[in-house]
Amino acid sequence: MNIIDIIDKKRNKEELTKEEYEFAFSGFLKKEVKDYQMSSLLMAICINGMSDQEVFDLTDIFIKSGEVLDLSGVEGVKVDKHSTGGVGDKTTLIIAPIVASLGIKVPKMSGRGLGLTGGTIDKLESIPGFKVALTKEELIKELNEIGMVICSQTDSLVPLDKAVYALRDVTGTVNSIPLIAVSIMSKKIASGADKILIDIKCGDGALIKDERSAKELKDLMIRIGNVYEKEVRCLVSDMNVPLGVCVGNALEVAEAVELLDGKVRNNLYDLCVDIASNMVSMGKNISIIDARDEVIEAINNKKALEKFYQFVTYQGGRIDDMTISENKMEIKSTKKGLITDINALIVSKVSNSLGSGRSTIEDVIDHGVGVFLNKQIGDTVNVGDTLCTLYYNQVDNNFNITEAFTIEEQEEKKETN
Ligand code: URA
User: Fold this and answer.
1) pTM: predicted TM-score of the whole model, two decimal places
2) Is the CB of 249 under 6 A from ligand 1?
């Protein structure tokens, strides 16, 4: 077998066999296939797509490239969640304690952020002392003792995805529905949960920009789940505006706590209730309506908040020591009118330029910086009102964040006598 013939075959829109995928991808992991050859094959896949059989074969090769976590030592139903990543997406921090407080086990391995969206692990590292790297034994012990865990993905889990994703990220080949499905589902299946909920973000601030692609990804991931006899549910959620009011690591942890304390009712609250209800419905085999009642009750009676504190303490975190930068800059409106849009992409770029994100994996994150949105869509503003507050340590900001806000001037109502 020859890698050039395999690339040629895919370029000619032909289906590849499992043996050919094995040769190319396992060869890449062993460094027998070069980066430039894999890039070329990935681009051919991006352009010409993959059949279902090819997707199933490649998912299997990805899973078998590493260890598959055996959670049979954990009692009860294990339900995992995954989000395709969005601006201000701190949903895992909120949902996992809600669902665990209702008796369902939540084993969640998360990643670090790269590009415009922060990773859950980076957010948790805003909490002094919080330990993100756990051994398999520690993970199983924590699941049995407190019902949830959020930790970083171990290197032994789907190493092929790590290697391929790093290359996709720098070769314009992230945006392929079959490759995204293989990447997500291989990690979820290798993580050992019984049931999986996937939140597909769709919009300007997300990887998936339109509803049609979101539906295609959803159907494909459900079909992969069927092959492994795992129940998979997918929600498609809006990512045109930031989720909640905080973007930036410590700010987002603080917002998650506020929500679990029952003080937040916005798009973040609605999405968290939706995702958690689906997970509880899957975990307990009950209707969404019943699950929703339980989820809302877990927030209202503070059981979910207690679970969050228990989890943070269990993993060594000292939440009271978490800090947000003391340097604040209030950004004022130069217009009077109604806010009709807040662009998630611009907000995330500004937050990243303040230091809350990375552009390369080596970059060091400043956990205390970010953006707080003082105004929401639907609010009216006057000239001089604060639109948002930047928390910074160094200002190196080429973006004008006021551009993120679309403010439509409203006609003055004429006084009639
Ligand atoms: N998230 C993943 O884990 N993989 C992708 O390819 C895209 C989003």
Assistant:
1) 0.92
2) no
User: 82 catalytic, yes or no?
Assistant: yes
Is residue 363's pLDDT more than 90? no
C-alpha torsion angle, residues 97, 103, 109, 111 (rounded to 10): -20
Cβ 164 under 6 angstroms from ligand 1 = no
Query: pLDDT by residue (tens digit) across 245-261?
Result: 999 999 999 999 999 99
> Concatenated DSSP letters for 94-132?
HHHHHHHHTT-BEEEEE---BTTB--HHHHHTTSTT---
Whether 184 lines ligand 1, by a CB cut-off of 6 Å, is yes
CB 308 within 8 A of CB 257: yes
Burial of 233 (0-12, 13-18, 19+ CB in 10 A): buried
Name the residue with the closest Cα to ligand 1, atom 2.
184
| Tens-place pLDDT, residues 191-211 | 999 999 999 999 877 889 899
Annotated catalytic residue: which of 40, 65, 83, 183?
183
Structural domains of the chain, ranges and CATH numbers in brackets: 3-49 (1.20.970.10), 79-320 (3.40.1030.10), 328-408 (3.90.1170.30)
DSSP state of 405: E
Query: What secondary structure, in 3-state letters, does the chain show?
Result: CCHHHHHHHHHCCCCCCHHHHHHHHHHHHCCCCCHHHHHHHHHHHHHHCCCHHHHHHHHHHHHCCCCCCCCCCCCCCEEEEEECCCCCCCHHHHHHHHHHHCCCEEEEEECCCECCECCHHHHHCCCCCCCCCCCHHHHHHHHHHHCEEEEECCCCCCHHHHHHHHHHHHCCCCCCHHHHHHHHHHHHHHCCCCEEEEEEEECCCCCECCHHHHHHHHHHHHHHHHHCCCEEEEEEEECCCCCCCEECHHHHHHHHHHHHCCCCCCHHHHHHHHHHHHHHHHHHCCCHHHHHHHHHHHHHCCHHHHHHHHHHHHCCCCHHHCCCCCEEEEEECCCCEEEEEECHHHHHHHHHHHHHCCCCCCCCCCCCCEEEECCCCCCEECCCCEEEEEEECCCCCCCCHHHHEEEECCCCCCCCC
Tell me if 193 CB under 6 Å of ligand 1: no
